[in-house]
Amino acid sequence: MIRLRSGSSEATLLPRIGGAIGSFSVDGRAILRPTPEGTTDPLETACFPLVPYANRIADGRFTFAGRGHALPCNVHGFAHPLHGLGWLKAWTIEDQAEDRAVVACSHEADAHWPWDWSATQRCVLEDGALHVLLEVTNRAAAPMPCGLGQHPYFVRDPDGRLRFAAAGVWLNDDGMIPARRAPADHFGNFAQGAVPLAGSLTDNCWFGWDGTATWQGAALQSDEARFVHVFAPPEEAFLCIEPTSQMPDAFNRTDDAGGTVLEPGGSARLGMTIRASGPARPVGPDGNL
Fold first, then answer.
1. 223 lies in a domain?
2. What's the burial of 99, exposed, middle or buried (CB within 10 Å: 0-12/13-18/19+)?
């Protein structure tokens, strides 16, 4: 575990558990759900990176550059591979200081993803804010489809109001794959601030997102993310506000689904800032604020 400190703020990183963030607190108040002691499950952490794709690929099947691909499920009990592969890998520490650290991982082509890639994640703790910069590079000899994201778990207040602006939201089919568009206020007027639906599952992607969201005195910003996925299971003590560069099942869509294609040696990045209060200032590629 890596422990970062800056003023009244603390964060922990768990490189070997999917490059995850273990906790983030300000003035002793948990902003992200703290990771239970002793767990090895990334799904129980405070936040984990989504790389080299975000969210689901329907049945693991897609076609790219005229070639069909069939990926196996990567989590027991889930019908579709999800969240990429970075969260299932052990990351290594590249650099570490009192208020910042860099972790990295790599992947060699296999059945789960037929391209070589490497990724780094730079975390910088400012008093009152945590900045995370995720970057992936295509190490294969051929172009690679790519999407990035983050999966932060915020501490949930039943009366907390979520606020963000978007153009619309995708409604899912029975397999939890986006099927049709709906107005952005379908689940509530989040542009004005709304309480996520109680007693029912919210697991949907909003498109045309402006890159900012607020929740219970915390602000999230991601300049590179065009989509925000909200995961709010009923009766759980967390709410996920996930900035992503692509929507779920993006590789099987011809509409404006996001993501990019990386040429050999090419890179993509996605930044995220979580701030306890006030406007967010994204971290630069050199790690400076």
1. yes
2. middle
Calculate what percentage of the chain has a pLDDT beyond 90: 87
184: containing domain: 2-275
Q: Does any domain span residue 219?
A: yes
Could you give the number of structural domains in the chain? 1
For the stretch 160-178, what's the b/e string if a residue is b when 16 or more beta carbons lie within 10 angstroms of its beta carbon?
A: bebebbbebbbebeeebbb
Q: For residue 154, which phi and psi values (nearest 5 degrees)?
A: -85, 145
CA distances from 96 to 12, 101, 103, 104 (A): 12, 4, 9, 12
CATH number at residue 34: 2.70.98.10
Q: How far apart are CA 90 and CA 103, in angstroms?
A: 10
pLDDT of residue 12: 98
Contacts of 9 (CB under 8 A, 6+ apart): 24, 25, 26, 27, 125, 126, 127, 128, 129, 130, 276
pLDDT tens sequence across 103-123 = 999 999 999 999 999 999 999
In a domain, residue 280? The reply is: no
Tell me if 162 is assigned to some domain. Answer: yes
Helix (H) or strand (E) holding 272: strand 267-275
Q: For position 282, what pLDDT does the model report?
A: 43
| Helices and strands (H and E) in the chain: how many | 0, 23
The DSSP bridge pattern shows strands 47-50 and 267-275 to be: unpaired
Phi, psi (degrees; rounded to nearest 5) at 44: -105, 5
181: pLDDT confidence band, cut at 50, 70 and 90?
Answer: very high
Among 40-44, 66-70, 143-147, 251-255, the least confident range: 251-255
